[in-house]
Specification:
The complex is a heterotrimer of chains A (106), B (501) and C (545). Chain A has 106 residues and is mostly helical. Chain A contains 3 helices and no strands. Chain B is mainly α. In chain B, a hairpin with an 8-residue loop joins strand 1 and strand 2. Chain B has one domain. Chain C has 2 domains: 488 residues, no CATH class; 34 residues. Chain C is 74% helix and 2% strand. Chain C has 24 helices and 2 strands. Classes of the chains: A mainly alpha (106), B mainly alpha (501), C mainly alpha (545). Chains in contact: A-B, A-C, B-C. At the B-C interface, helix 6, helix 8, helix 11, helix 16 and helix 17 of B face helix 6, helix 7, helix 23 and helix 24 of C.
Chain lengths: 106, 501, 545
Amino acid sequence: MSATLPYGVTAAALIALGLFGLVAQAAVLRKILACNLLGGGVFLLFGVVARRGATAADAVPQAIVITGLVVAFAATALAVALALRLHQITGAATIAGEPESGPRGE
Amino acid sequence: MSGTTPGGWLLVFTLALPAGGMLAAFALGGRAAERIALAALGLGVLLAGAVAARVQAAGAPLAYLVGGRAPPLGIRLQADGIAAAMLLTASVVLLAVALFGRAAHATPPGVAEARAPFAFWTFLLALSAALAAALLGADLFNLFVALEMLTFAALSLACLDGRASQFRSELRYLFFALIGSALYLLGTALLYGAYGTLDIGLLAAHARADAPTLLAAALMTAGLLARMALFPLHLWLPPAHAGAPPAASALLSGLVVKAAFVLLLRVWVWVLPPAPAGAAAPLLAGLGAAAILVGSLVALRQERLKLLVAYSTVAQIGYLFLMLPLVLAGDAEAARRAWLGGVLQAASHAFAKAAMFLSAGLIAGAVGHDRVAALCGAGRAVPMAVIAFGLAGLSLVGIPPSGGFTAKWLLLTAAIGTGQWWWAAVILGGGLLTGGYVYRVLAGSLTVPPATAPQPEPQAPGPARVALALALVSVALGLLPFAAFGLVQIGRPGALAGAGP
Amino acid sequence: MSGPQALLVAAIGMPLLLLLACLHGAARRCMPGLLWIAPLPGLAAALLAADAPPLVMDAARLRLTLGLDAPSALLLGAASLLWSMAGAYAFRYFGRGPGAERFALWWLVTLSGSLGVFVAGDLASFYLAFAAASLAAFGLIVQDGTPRARRAGEVTLLLAVMGEICLLLAFALLAEAVEGPSLAIAEAVAALPGSPARGLAVGLLITGFGLKAGLVPLHVWLPLAHPAAPMPASSVLSGAIVKAGIIGLLRFLPADGTLADWGGVLAGLGLLTAFWGVACGIVQANPKTVLAYSTISQMGVTAAALGMGMALAEPGTAMAVAFYATHHVLAKGALFLAVGLAAATGGPRRLWLVLLPALLLALGFGGLPGTGGALAKAAVKPQLGAGLVGLLAALSAAGSTLLMLHFMRRLVALTAEDPQRRPAPGLLLPWLGMAAAALLLPWALHAGAGLGDPWQVPGQDPAGAFWPVLLGAALAAALARRDRWLGAVPEGDLLSLAGPARRLGAACGTAVGRAEAVLRAWPAAGLSLLVLILALFGLMATAAP
């Protein structure tokens, strides 16, 4: 059993959990958390990739992960800001329900 | 994989101008932001024109190595034919939207600065920078960052009115886009693991058709499709595009989805070996065909004008995917035509759809609602906007002499040339359905109201002129001489060097 | 660019130039009075530019070709004359005002397309002109804004777009058949018989052009649209625009025996249409609808003549068919003007100015010896003269006489009650001009069209020319009192059967809408995403070595 396998499995589990949460949860905060799980899984995978093959750690995946973390942080901040405004206006933060779409006569 | 080409500095300016403008606008505040944005976007059109002219003249892509370092460690900027063409399209649409936005977001002297105009101009510049990065990047990870920036900027513009329904639909957009980017990033991780680089040029030279590569390609494709809202992954698009203010809708529908499409082409035409790409391309085109038919049918039944236009986007995105099996069919002449047809469809749809959303906004503003069934009198209140809508519709339906017609003609002949009749049927059937929903809007708008109806308030002509100009550009694309179209073939793998347009 | 070539450009350019001038408010306000000028360069081109070397603009392979051969010059001249007279008539009919200005805009677009199809020599400009003529006609039809006009316009538009689709596909097949990038029609037609997709291409061409020319069963829009449009518009619709279909058939289907099998199909469709038009027309009450059905019937005869020419490889078919169609342009255009005039005229003293020429023109369609119509019938004799087809053609001539006598009865019923009602000269003069042209021009053009001395024609087969007229007149007398049959067939006959198709379409739309709503839910989208990844990976893996 290689040293990277547990990390790979964890990454896959995190990604699966995150995807499920994003799709199945309606509450905005849960979706945001699921997003972060998903991102964590992907970044962990980059870590696995960085270890694989090379004896010395590869610097590029680390740079990628750091940049990716910044992007993920920005996304989280944006989502939280939107959710907060939504909560202020409607008193609830959910995106369930059909927002003014659907065929004629809805 | 040569180094910086002559004129490569143009690419740096294309990127740095809107990015620097955004920072300056952020620092200097509302009144200055408007001036900076208009100046930067105006200059952006000139820069994009210069890039296109240099690429056309050189017959080869422009490239710039950041810091003089070559990939895999360095970062490369590159403008090939498709990037130059889409950059020009994007810069013109952005400038038009900025001019359109002056009506709502100008801060005249003596009026206190407000938050919305400040945000509008800053995010417009951010969007411009992100688009340039997404088109000029040559590294799969940099392209991911550019797409994320694009989403954030577009989303912020779309929420500018601050209505609860907007927040809700833009949050849906954000979450679905994040799923897409996670899948895409997963794919890049696999590719990096396999090849140790994410530079498109290096990957194109080394990519094998083995399991990690194919899985990576499948994940990245799915992620990009989620961002492009290809049927059946379109759940977020109609409310997000329909709920946004007209200027933001125009950018979202016209440009933002196209950036993801260019990236998809990079993966499918550059990185993937032709055999697996050709095997899976009919699936994407099939989804595109389903998008055309379902999107158009649903658009035909919409009650709301802006939702109708948004579903039209769902359908028109489908046309882009029809080019894939034609380009990858292995017939050089058909590939050339399909490639040109696809890029022309992307460009003419960008102009036409931007014009359509802007004029839809004006029409809805003039009649006070956007119920398609009750647009009676719009033709009298905002005649120029209705004409713009009609001209844009002409291009979407594919009636000559519009850009949409030329695009569909090229795809049609490529489909016949490669013996793939069924795509021809889809292209033509889609045109008929498109005609149906465009007709619904025009017939309603042009109905003469009863004599007792109140006289419409006169509207400022500026925004309608912008919409009309965009629609006219979309039509005029069909009148370009074919020689000008040689540009988009430059840098395409498989394009014969020196082959005619 | 030589003088005649400049005229070809001006034929299309003049209407477009006037259209451009309409951007200026003052020019727009006086445009209704200028409509009669717009087709004059077309008329000049027909007179001076026939058989001039074609103008080829080979700008980087986008070959734009304008040219005029003898058959299309004939049609172009007649159509230009009709457009000009009808334009003058329209000015008096509408006067000035926003409505007239709107009408003028649509008029100019339709005009440029209608004349453009006669001079276009390449696939791209022909398609463009054809689309302009078909689609812009919508604006002319719905001018009155009544629900009836709107429905007629919608049906027309729908079918016109379907026709465009057929033609676009056919043109793509033609372009594919040609070696190299040329788009010239002549080369495409030359390559057509050897193309692997020959059958499909010819079928699509016949469908697309037949739809415009009103061949059964694609004629349903015509009896709706032509009566619903205002008088001058009906006149050019039935006279000139329908000929876009005929010129298309003439241009794209060579009568040199290479498509003999398809010639038979076209002839069969044409003869069916000829009788169908008569059968549906004689039970119509509105004289304009009767005229529209007569147009259908006449276009059927035209198509039959072309089809037989193709089947028999008869030389001179294109010219003969063009001559027949030219007579129809003039006579049918004139008769529609007469309908508008009859409604505005009272008292026998003035009415004869309307009714007498109308009677002559009407009987001309049945081939009454001495009329231009008789010359037209004689011109297509080599194609339609012999055997069973000859008998059917003669019977259809009898049917035309019957139909046109029915039209005259309906026209008389329309005349104004007030005996003092006098028509405006602005309406009367175009009508008299068109009537004179329809009666006399065939005589003047006959020899020039290579059909021989017109004075020989009446003596050639007097009995064969007379009996269809007499039979038709006898039938008309027999049926004269059967007014209870009027309205037995609704306008657009077969269209009343389209109800179930409509309902089916609506049900499909609803079903698609429901399915789409299901797919738009988050779990469904997540599942689609997963399935998509697996399917993409699977498909790609199948091709991996």
